[in-house]
């Protein structure tokens, strides 16, 4: 388990734990569930471990949110939602979408790099993704991928 920093939902005011993942350092892409906000982390390292792991589709930028062409390769979330481009992380208490602009307050307050000039990207689709309350899945691909093509 990772150390969780504290965030606060702008809708219900309740606090929750979170951590950030830098997709450049982690060599991955990500998507959020459109229903509960769970984070799917898709590691590029798994390409070496399994020949059935789908590769990044042509035209999809690496190390950030997935492109829509990758959605059909992902299993559904355990809540019944889908991991989709454009979905957002959600408060674990009220399930409302979290604003990346309003999250800047607690993300920059908790980040050690802020003291030396680091700033939050202020969106849910670039290099950093957020995992709320350790709710994430890794490499949740549908297998075998040959049936998806």
Task: Give a written overview of the molecule.
This protein is of the alpha+beta class and 149 residues long. The chain has one domain (5-138). Helices cover 13% and strands 22% of the residues. The strands form two sheets. A four-stranded mixed beta sheet has the order 5-3-4-7. A three-stranded antiparallel beta sheet has the order 1-2-6.
Sum up the structure in keywords.
149 residues, four-stranded mixed beta sheet, 22% strand
Question: What can be said about this structure in brief?
Answer:
The chain is of the alpha+beta class.
The helix/strand series, from N terminus to C terminus, equals: EEHEEHEHEE
Described by the principal axes of the CA atoms, the overall outline is globular
* Rg on CA atoms, Å: 15 Å
The main sheet comes to: 4 strands, mixed
How would you summarize the topology of this molecule?
Elements lengths: L4 E4 L6 E8 H4 L1 E6 L5 E5 L2 H4 L33 E2 L15 H11 L17 E5 L3 E3 L11
Parallel strand pairs: 4-7
Antiparallel strand pairs: 1-2, 2-6, 3-4, 3-5
